[in-house]
Amino acid sequence: MAAIREKKMNYIIVILILLVNIQTQAQAISKRINDYTNSYVKTGDFSGCILISENDKIIFENCYGFANQSFTVPNEQNTKFKIGSVSKQFTASAILIMEQQGLLKTTDTLSKFFPNNINAKRIIIQQLLTHTSGIPDIYNVPNFNKLSNQNKTVSELSNLVLDAELEFEPGTQYQYSNGGYAVLAEIIEKVSGVTYQDFLTKHIFIPLNMISTGHNSINEVIPNLAVGYDPLDYDRVKITDLLDPELLKGSGSLYSTVNDLQIWINSIKNRSLLTTESYDKFLTNYGNNYGFGISLYKSFDQEVFGHDGRVNGYIADYLYYKKSDISIIILGNIQTGVADFFRRDIAAIVFQREYKSRAKTIPPEKELIADKGRILGTYSFGPNFKVYVEELEGRVQARANEGGYSELILLKDKRFFSRTLYSYIEFINDNEGKIIKMIWTNNDGNSFEGIKE
């Protein structure tokens, strides 16, 4: 009898030791995530919330920085953030729901909805969903940033991109296009007879009880929505410029919380919203690691699904690791390039792999070079990709094609740094001291050369 009691006691001790080890390990991982994230908070490059779940249980949650810096309102779990291109999978799901309702087919040609457009008969809905339509990106529309002041509707925007010359023959290439998703939003409104936001609310957000997710309309007051900020100088921020959400409808106009996005992830992994046939379409890799508005690839030897998003003043990112049943959600309200590597580094911490902080450490040069005019100009990285370096309001800024501007900050080592892209830029002279090219080095260490025109 004593032997049985001793054996039972030993078993309890082993269990207790295992529980203590698990708790200690979890605490160590939480500390590493906090230390890693705070390295960017301290440099002024991250503000937002992180949520990590495993087997439907939250294993890490924390918020950093302020939802409103003017009034020092902290970010909290119920803070809403604009999610940029994460919106695309909701648009894709709406199209699949309409297909389930018999209102359209993903094999329909666009001429069914845009009979007067010449390009429409060459494109099918599926090509819009998979970025293989050849329709140009909305950011390549001339003077796109000025459209916010012109009260353009998504209908007018979709006609602009449909009327533009196609980038390639539909179905022959992959090229990420927000323009294609603007067209999808217009199709949703044309066919359903209701607004994009009303359709998503009725058929996605309400059924899933995603009570903190919606479409952001211009000048609308949204409780708990964080103010969006863009980088300014080396470590300051400014309130982001206005961009009418109508222009991002379909491609990047939604806002959400980390908790609501967890609900969304659960609905995908459990296949609880759409039919089996629709989910099969949604989660098929059609090439280029992309399904219907959702990224599909391998990371840390596991299949994952998710998406990232960037929009004026905000970053968003999530990944779901199927084998481990782990989801990592990151939402932020400072638009910097940390989004490009945050999710992988935090996953590396969770899976106990190698990682490192890339937070900037080289201090800024207090005075910009006197002959900064030499670096201004156009740099060609290819036939369809140009970077323009200009001086605006006394600051050196760069933009790619018709995209937004990113300030270039001179560092002590004479390189420039872009907080928006978290990249380093060098300008190369010839033997006579004339600038001939730009070397752009991304945060992953890959470098690209642009020849000055």
Give the arrangement of secondary structure elements.
Layout: H1 2-41, E1 48-54, E2 57-64, E3 66-68, E4 73-74, E5 81-82, H2 88-100, H3 125-129, H4 154-163, H5 178-192, H6 196-205, E6 214-215, E7 229-232, E8 236-239, E9 254-256, H7 258-269, H8 276-282, E10 295-299, E11 302-311, E12 314-321, E13 326-332, H9 339-350, E14 377-382, E15 385-392, E16 395-400, E17 406-410, E18 416-418, E19 423-429, E20 435-441, E21 447-452
Helix pairs in contact: 1-9, 2-5, 2-6, 4-5
Q: Can you give the helix content as a percent range? A: 25-40%
**Structural class of the helices, strands and pairings?**
alpha+beta
Spell the H/E element sequence.
HEEEEEHHHHHEEEEHHEEEEHEEEEEEEE
The CATH topology of the largest domain is: Beta-lactamase
Please, what is the CATH homologous superfamily of the largest domain? DD-peptidase/beta-lactamase superfamily
CATH 2nd-level architecture of the largest domain = 3-Layer(aba) Sandwich
Please characterize this protein's 3D structure:
This protein folds into two domains: 81-350, DD-peptidase/beta-lactamase superfamily (Beta-lactamase, 3-Layer(aba) Sandwich), CATH 3.40.710; 372-452, Lipocalin (Beta Barrel). The strands form five sheets. It has an eight-stranded antiparallel beta barrel. The protein has a six-stranded antiparallel beta sheet with strand order 2-1-13-12-11-10, sandwiched between helices. The chain has nine helices and 21 strands. A hairpin with a 4-residue loop joins strand 12 (314-321) and strand 13 (326-332). The protein has helices at 2-41, 88-100, 125-129, 154-163, 178-192, 196-205, 258-269, 276-282, 339-350; strands spanning 48-54, 57-64, 66-68, 73-74, 81-82, 214-215, 229-232, 236-239, 254-256, 295-299, 302-311, 314-321, 326-332, 377-382, 385-392, 395-400, 406-410, 416-418, 423-429, 435-441, 447-452. By secondary structure, the chain is an alpha+beta fold. The protein is globular, with a radius of gyration of 24 Å. Helix 1 (2-41) packs antiparallel against helix 9 (339-350) and helix 4 (154-163) crosses helix 5 (178-192).
